[in-house]
Amino acid sequence: MRDPSRRSLWRPEGWRRPFDAWFDEVVTLLPERFMMPRVEVLERNNELIVRADLPGFQREDINLTVTDDALVISARRESEREEEGTGYYRSERQFGTFHRNISFPVAVDSSRATARLKDGVLEVRIPLREQVEPTGRRIEIE
């Protein structure tokens, strides 16, 4: 008789386990090689607010470009750490870059955009453009 505690590869929980373990390992390695900040976009008080989690980044590391259609956030981080003690020496280097393009869902006035970085959170505020009714006229056909 078969031991019911043994998992079969033919059962979903059996064949998924090796893949889940591999995926978990890959995901834990990603932050060192690939950084993509979490971003929140909201419309409040007649402005568009974009917040991005950028822990560990300094103002000098971040580059912002805004147009009437989108906001581009890019950054580069480099850090080196050395530690020396009795009988050992440890050196670590970490670097990474990211580039994030956020399209605006509404019309904005990019010339009045402001940004600030506080406690690892970048906040960009862009006033909404006043809705201008499209002007038009009826054209008579000759």
Order of helices and strands: HEEEEEEE
Largest sheet: 4 strands, antiparallel
Fraction in helix: 10-25%
**Average pLDDT rating:** 79
Strand order of the largest sheet: 1-2-7-6
Poorly predicted tracts of residues? none
Would you give the CATH topology of the domain at 37-127?
A: Immunoglobulin-like
> How many angstroms separate the termini?
92 Å
Please count the helical segments.
Answer: 1
Q: CATH top level of the domain at 37-127?
A: Mainly Beta
Report Rg: 25 Å
- The CATH architecture of the domain at 37-127 can be given as Sandwich
Content of β-strand: 35-45%
What is the approximate shape? elongated
Count the E strands. Answer: 7
Structural class estimated from helices and strands: alpha+beta
Q: What quaternary form is this? A: single chain
Plain-language structure description:
This protein is of the alpha+beta class and 142 residues long. The chain has a domain at 37-127: Immunoglobulin-like, CATH 2.60.40. It has one helix and seven strands. The chain has one helix at 12-33, and strands spanning 39-44, 47-53, 62-66, 70-85, 88-103, 114-118, 121-127. It has a four-stranded antiparallel β-sheet with strand order 1-2-7-6, with no helix packed on it. The chain has a three-stranded antiparallel β-sheet with strand order 3-4-5. The longest helix has 22 residues, at 12-33. The radius of gyration is 25 Å and the shape is elongated. The N and C termini lie far apart (92 Å).
Describe the SSE topology.
Blueprint: H1 12-33, E1 39-44, E2 47-53, E3 62-66, E4 70-85, E5 88-103, E6 114-118, E7 121-127
Antiparallel strand pairs: 1-2, 2-7, 3-4, 4-5, 6-7
